[in-house]
Amino acid sequence: MTIARVTEISATSPTSFDDAVSQGIERASKTLRNVQSAWVKDQNVMVENGKVSAFKVNLEVTFVLDDE
User: Fold this and answer.
1) Percent of the chain beyond pLDDT 90?
2) Residue 53 phi, psi dihedral angles, 5° rounding
3) Could you report the per-residue pLDDT of 32-62, keeping only the tens digit for each?
4) What is the pLDDT of residue 66?
5) Measured CA distances, 26 to 29, 52, 53 (Å)
6) Which of 6, 15, 19, 35 has its CA 20 to 30 A from that of 50?
7) How far is residue 10 CA from its own chain's centroid?
8) Please, is 26 exposed, middle or buried when counting C-beta atoms within 10 Å of its C-beta (0-12, 13-18, 19+)?
């Protein structure tokens, strides 16, 4: 039997939403083992002086728990 857990993380990038997703997954994978998937729950942009300064995503990351 496989048991998985879901955790929510936020990631930002000055470049794009795609880059924010990639950076978020790469960082999560350094701490969480067995990352299997991620769902982009929300996307936002940060605005400074009337211009987009950063792209932010909230991700629901699914990882499989280790067997005992």
Assistant:
1) 93
2) -110, -20
3) 999 999 999 999 999 999 999 999 999 999 9
4) 86
5) 5, 24, 22
6) 19
7) 6
8) exposed
